[in-house]
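User: I'm writing a short report section on ligand binding and want a predicted complex to refer to. Could you take this sequence and zinc ion and write out the structure as tokens? A short remark afterwards would be nice.
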Amino acid sequence: MSLKNDIWQLEEELNDLLYRLQELRIKVDSLEVQNARLLERLNDDNIRSEGIEELTKLYEEGYHICPTYFAQQRGGEECLFCQNFLHEHA
Ligand SMILES: [Zn+2]
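Assistant: Sure. The structure tokens for the complex follow:
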């Protein structure tokens, strides 16, 4: 009898452990998804802000960065298209 009771108790404990394991697995899964999303966003932001930084430098060095005159020399003149472009993407 007592052996049977022991087995039942062990079974219950095992079931409890399995249930907790499942819960943990679900938590880990959702954390992994969240983590992947965050990494994705971080990379996107880095690439975008780096690109804008490069374009700003280019503009300050005297070149157009607007689609219309891209990479042509500004000849010391301010360009509204360029400034608008920077303003929109900053
Ligand atoms: Zn321009």
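A remark for your report: The two ends are 76 Å apart (CA to CA). The pocket of zinc ion is lined by residues 64, 66, 69, 79, 81-82 (CB under 6 Å).
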